[in-house]
Amino acid sequence: MTRAACVALAAALAACSSSNGAGGGGGGDAGNDATVTGGEDGGGVNDGGGGADSPSSGGDGGSGVDAGCGAFASDPTFTCTGDGNARAKCVGGSLDEQACAEGCLRLDAGQDSICMGDASDWSCTGSYGTTPVDDGNYYMSEFGCYVDDAGVQTDPDDNCIPSCLSQALASGLCAAGSTGPECEESVNWYTADGARFGCLQRLRVTNPLTGKALIAVALDFGPGCTGENNVQHAVLDSSGPVNDYLFGSGQGASQESLVHVVEVDDSTPLGPVP
Question: Which pTM value belongs to this model?
């Protein structure tokens, strides 16, 4: 079973298509991304939404739960906090919490979540990446339909039917009856890589050179392994507004515009981080 198939945030459902644009925005340089038409679930890969971890949300966990561990009372293994900045577990009724300077990486249920480090375990051998990289670093690229000050923007290289459309509709992220393009345009702050993180997983995406950060939601699969193998690095395909906010314009994978990605709780508001 893949990681994201086990990963389930409380409000998110699962299943997913793939984005077509790892080479979008910056001149189509990564290209050849896998495309899955809307409504398919990508062959059952990573169709779980949200996170396997139990994010910290405060409180004492209710009757019969050790108040000393709060939201982590039922976690004997390290679990990422809701903001992704630490990991914690309950040991003998006491909370063991460790700060993660580079963010916490959620792993399958029953495994200790880890603090991200400097080493990357990137590989991409199928249609698209299915495992988050250990260092949390990705090259940015642009894809999809969105709305900006000039109006609705379309993507000639993408069908704008996100593979997580059914989950987005069921969860209320997109209005009932929305088409794929309408869903993407209403969300605006979204990424691909749903096969890595799980459909509707919320991500804090940061430009490490400027410190600017935002919250986006994984709404599609992709980018394709062909594009990632061209640059020998994991790629985060993202909407125009995500690219514009972090870099001022649409990026292509070959530009090697680096972002750092951390999974956060599904209640985290989308858009720029103050």
Answer: 0.79
